[in-house]
Amino acid sequence: MSALLLQELLKAPRETLWIADENSKPLLQPGFHFNGDLLTNRWDIAGLAEGIAARSFFNDFHFEELSRSYRRIVYQVSKEKAVVHHIINQAPRFLGEGGELVLLGEKQSGIKSYAAKAAERLGTAKQLQKHGNDYSSINRIIHANGGKLIGELDYSRLRSLPELGGLYSKPGLFGWNKIDKGSALLARQFTTELPREGARIVDLGCGYGYLSIQLASRGNFHFTATDNNAAALLACKQNFRTRGLTGVVTPSDAGAELDCGIADLVLCNPPFHQGFQVEAGLTNRFLQNSARLLKSTGTTLFVVNAFISLVEKGLRYYSDVQLMCQENGFCVYRLRLC
Questions:
Q1: What is the mean pLDDT of residues 11-25?
Q2: What is the model's pTM?
Q3: pLDDT exceeds 90 at position 222
Q4: What is the rounded average pLDDT for all residues in the chain?
Q5: 271 contacts 205 by C-beta, under 8 angstroms
Q6: Which of 266, 314, 311, 271 is nearest to 290 (CA)?
Q7: 155-200 confidence digits (pLDDT tens)
Q8: Domains plus CATH for the chain?
Q9: For residues 257 and 321, what is the distance between their CA atoms, to the nearest angstrom?
Q10: CA-to-CA distance for 300 and 264, rounded, in angstroms?
Q11: What is the 3-state secondary structure (H, E, C) of the chain?
């Protein structure tokens, strides 16, 4: 897919907006230059884009912050359906008449359905071209207001969900409307792994802040919650405000930007997918950074899918890795530096 995306970007006019998700990473390398603007909801992509794109923006796809319109929007579709629908819905507002929305995707990405949705939204005939295993859909704006809105119509709104115990979340965040079973299993270990009052906690890959909120109900601690996803950061900040947690919510790439040795306790439920692909290196990056962030006397708690060999991986960075419990396909591990 990178070859098809590269082809579209190289021929793109300067007035092009590239919507860059995790799928775009292979192109964001030294030596590549993109003359247009880049918009992403991922902190790592925004960092890689510095010096490569003419302008880069990190937010939860708030197009209005870009303060301009475009002749072309190029987008390799994301894994999150709500994000794709939101971008298709927004396109007519930020493409002038005659402007083009270019959607790219592999067969398993849902590109055929998205091509139909784009045609519905833009008021055009469905356009879909096959390029080997990849597809492109190029839709031209006929009317500035577009046609019928599709999918989730209130993407940007944070909402308090009863199924989350009243915590705030939103579309665009993986598992946004449910409590992750792995995180719930980890949170149950707080009864025996409760840190001292005032301890400094790092919630690595915080999502909407579930683990921090659960731990905060058991004592007074200082939290640093961090995530790569803009939607997650918005939701977590709102939950910190409404629940009165002490601490900060900040973007980072698996904790890489945080200072060394700041944590008495690190909490982590790491992702193991990057877009549509399984990326084995993600767990290693979270392990490496968690060990770097931890004080020498501190503890790290990880929850992972049972098929991930965390003992083998963890012993590269920690001297002690212990399985605490296993349930419903998840394992919780305690890791210590000494």
A1: 91
A2: 0.94
A3: yes
A4: 93
A5: yes
A6: 266
A7: 999 999 999 999 999 999 989 999 999 999 999 999 999 999 999 9
A8: 2-140 (3.40.50.150), 159-336 (3.40.50.150)
A9: 25
A10: 8
A11: CHHHHHHHHHCCCCCEEEECCHHHHHHCCCCCCEEEEEEECEHHHHHHHCCCEEEEEECCCCHHHHCCCEEEEEEECCCCHHHHHHHHHHHHHHEEEEEEEEEEEEHHHCHHHHHHHHHHHHCCCCCCEEECCEEEEEEECCCCCCCCCCCCCCCCCCEECHHHCCCEECCCCCCCCCCCHHHHHHHHHHHCCCCCCCCEEEEECCCCCHHHHHHHCCCCCEEEEEECEHHHHHHHHHHHHHHCCEEEEEECCCCCCCCCCCEEEEEECCCCEECCEECCHHHHHHHHHHHHHEEEEEEEEEEEECCCCHHHHHCCCCCEEEEEEEECCEEEEEEECC
Instruction: Give how far the C-alpha of residue 180 lies from the chain's centroid of Cα atoms, to the nearest Å.
Output: 15
The two structure tokens encoding residue 239: 């939950």
